[in-house]
């Protein structure tokens, strides 16, 4: 029996002087634009994941200060795939401040470059976006959507406590 589970991802909306930090990355569909984004890893909080992914993909140290939104998107299985359920992503998008890029820091292998674009420049090239969430997150940010970081609570469960109860 196939187990369904969503992929948890994080993204960073970073604005500076009316421009947004984006990455151009290799994807199965070719070069695409995205916010610095990636998967939550075991043992980290969502805020830690957003800071880590932003640094890895853009070389900019990032300090999230608010949650812009939580987004879910689903991709149907591709033809010939053994996956019958497709792929669902649950994306937590944060905004905050980024320091200048660390010159000595290499970008993740799939990242071609970073660039700063205005919302209008980004809106003019939807075919280059990795997903429709790229523009949606910028639009939500521009609309002033901000939620405090404590909206997303991380409750660490000690291994012995979780094994006794069976459920957190």
Automatic annotation (TrEMBL):
<feature type="domain" description="Nudix hydrolase">
    <location>
        <begin position="5"/>
        <end position="139"/>
    </location>
</feature>
<dbReference type="GO" id="GO:0004787">
    <property type="term" value="F:thiamine diphosphate phosphatase activity"/>
</dbReference>
<comment type="similarity">
    <text>Belongs to the Nudix hydrolase family. NudJ subfamily.</text>
</comment>
<dbReference type="InterPro" id="IPR015797">
    <property type="entry name" value="NUDIX_hydrolase-like_dom_sf"/>
</dbReference>
<dbReference type="GO" id="GO:0017110">
    <property type="term" value="F:nucleoside diphosphate phosphatase activity"/>
</dbReference>
<protein>
    <recommendedName>
        <fullName>Phosphatase NudJ</fullName>
        <ecNumber>3.6.1.-</ecNumber>
    </recommendedName>
</protein>
<comment type="subunit">
    <text>Monomer.</text>
</comment>
<dbReference type="InterPro" id="IPR033713">
    <property type="entry name" value="NudJ"/>
</dbReference>
<dbReference type="InterPro" id="IPR000086">
    <property type="entry name" value="NUDIX_hydrolase_dom"/>
</dbReference>
<keyword id="KW-0460">Magnesium</keyword>
<keyword id="KW-0378">Hydrolase</keyword>
<dbReference type="GO" id="GO:0017111">
    <property type="term" value="F:ribonucleoside triphosphate phosphatase activity"/>
</dbReference>
<dbReference type="Pfam" id="PF00293">
    <property type="entry name" value="NUDIX"/>
</dbReference>
């Amino acid at each position: 029996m196939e187990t369904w589970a969503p992929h948890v991802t994080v993204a960073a909306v970073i604005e500076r002087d009316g421009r947004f930090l984006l990455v151009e990355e290799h994807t199965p569909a070719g070069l695409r634009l995205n916010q610095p984004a990636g998967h939550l890893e075991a043992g980290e909080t969502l805020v830690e994941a957003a800071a880590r992914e932003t640094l890895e993909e853009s070389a900019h140290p990032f300090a999230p200060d608010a949650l812009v939104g939580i987004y879910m998107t689903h991709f149907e299985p591709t033809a010939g795939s053994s996956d019958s359920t497709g792929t669902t992503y649950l994306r937590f998008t944060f905004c905050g401040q980024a320091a200048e890029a660390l010159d000595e820091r290499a970008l993740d292998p799939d990242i071609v470059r970073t660039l700063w674009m205005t919302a209008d420049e980004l809106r003019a090239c939807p075919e280059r976006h990795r997903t429709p969430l790229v523009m949606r997150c910028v639009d939500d940010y521009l609309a002033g959507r901000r939620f405090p970081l404590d909206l997303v609570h991380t409750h660490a469960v000690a291994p012995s406590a979780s094994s006794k109860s069976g459920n957190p």
